[in-house]
Design goal:
Helices cover 79% and strands 0% of the residues. The chain is mostly helical and 140 residues long. It has one domain. The radius of gyration is 19 Å and the shape is elongated.
Length: 140
Amino acid sequence: MNFKLIAPATALRIALGLMATLAGLDKFFNLLADWPAYVAPAAAELLPVSVTTVMHIVGLVEFGVGLTILVFRPNLGAYVASAWLLLVAANLVLGGRLDVAVRDVVLSVAAFTLARLEEVRLGSTDQVRERIRQRGTITA
């Protein structure tokens, strides 16, 4: 990966990872927002469980995605976050919260960008490993 891209990729990884992790945790405490209020009424009617229960499940997913971005597989977590944010945006459009939906679409694009940057980074790591394997040693 181009050296100039490492800092932006790291910033995206930390920001998106922390956002997902903290938002996921907050689904249990409602300190940042009244999360159940963001579920579109049309969607709430279709749910087999309470909106609060759904928000707890959403919180677990978001927490897991955040940890995946931060610790385990950033590219995989970022792809999941990108798709997840588009689904959240669709729910927000159904509920008439267009301003927040636009923000989530932009965050989805940021997550997709992170996923691609991480793939580029992994690709260059794989190339280094391949060169080491072929030569048996590292040469300058």
